[in-house]
């Protein structure tokens, strides 16, 4: 896609997100239904499904030939990254959404032939949209923002997944003790927002493609490193342990893990 096309797509996506988020904020205390998926902390609500249905419908209507990867079943069984592939997470942080109606994000990522194009992480309640991509730069709502400082591990907070921290999986506890401190937000999207905005030096968690697709585009546009825990390139169609950090903290994290 050329820059004009990317700008036109961006206008569409921002309109869809605004509509979906306004609807969610207006109705989040009514008609609330919660179901469990794989276990008692793996939840889905009618709002996850309705929001995904709406966003996937908009994409299909505007871009009928594109492929869509999404969490709650309205997308496609995508086998490859050829052409344009969209990633949709309608509510990221569903457990927060259910328990406190706060700290959850709406996310969309767009790739073309496997390359980063556009990423969106909307912190829904305060209406803070982090968006951008390699050809249009980074923005927080209407404001252009600059890349975060290339901080060392010791200089910043580190976002982690709760069970990985508790069990020291992938030596996450040791990584955290070398940082300024652990943060556990319960939303991969909001963790990515914090790293891109320079409020955390990194984040690590086992994630699904819709959890990291938007964040990877935004983080890489911000000059951050996004790899697997082993330092390998991310596979866009698999669950894996994803590590986002500054380039300065990356070897420091890897050294702890290998020690
Ligand atoms: P979700 O709310 O969209 O499911 C919580 O630690 C973070 O990890 C959230 O971003 C959550 O996304 C994500 N996550 C990934 N796999 C999960 C799982 N099996 N159960 C709960 N949260 C999961
Ligand atoms: Ca979920
Ligand atoms: Ca998610
Ligand atoms: Ca979700």
From TrEMBL:
It comes from the Bacteria. PROSITE patterns: IMP_1 (PS00629). Transmembrane segments: none annotated. This is Inositol monophosphatase family protein. InterPro entries: Inositol_monoP_metal-BS, Inositol_monophosphatase-like. Keywords: Hydrolase, Magnesium, Metal-binding. Coiled coil: none annotated. It holds the Pfam family Inositol_P.
């Amino acid at each position: 896609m050329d820059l004009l096309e990317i700008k036109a797509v961006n206008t569409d996506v921002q309109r869809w997100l605004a509509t979906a988020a306004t609807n969610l904020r207006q109705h989040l205390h009514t008609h609330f239904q919660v179901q469990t998926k794989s276990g008692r902390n793996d939840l889905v609500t009618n709002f996850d499904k309705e929001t995904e249905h709406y966003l996937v419908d908009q994409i299909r209507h505007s871009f009928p030939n594109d492929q869509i990867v999404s969490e709650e079943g309205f997308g496609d069984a995508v086998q490859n990254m050829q052409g344009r592939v969209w990633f949709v997470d309608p509510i990221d942080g569903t457990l927060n959404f259910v328990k406190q109606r706060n700290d959850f994000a709406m996310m969309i990522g767009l790739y073309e032939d496997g390359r980063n194009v556009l990423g969106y992480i909307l912190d829904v309640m305060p209406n803070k949209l982090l968006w951008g991509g390699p050809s249009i730069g980074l923005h927080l709502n209407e404001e252009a923002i600059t890349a975060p400082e290339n901080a060392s591990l010791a200089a910043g907070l580190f976002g982690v997944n709760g069970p990985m921290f508790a069990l020291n999986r992938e030596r996450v506890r040791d990584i955290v003790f070398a940082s300024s401190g652990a943060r556990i937000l319960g939303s991969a999207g909001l963790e990515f927002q914090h790293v891109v905005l320079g409020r955390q030096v990194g984040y690590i968690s086992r994630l699904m493609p819709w959890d990291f697709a938007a964040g990877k585009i935004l983080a890489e546009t911000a000059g951050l490193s996004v790899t697997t825990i082993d330092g390998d390139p991310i596979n866009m169609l698999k669950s894996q342990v994803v590590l986002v950090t500054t380039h300065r903290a990356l070897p420091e994290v890897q050294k702890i893990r290998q020690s």
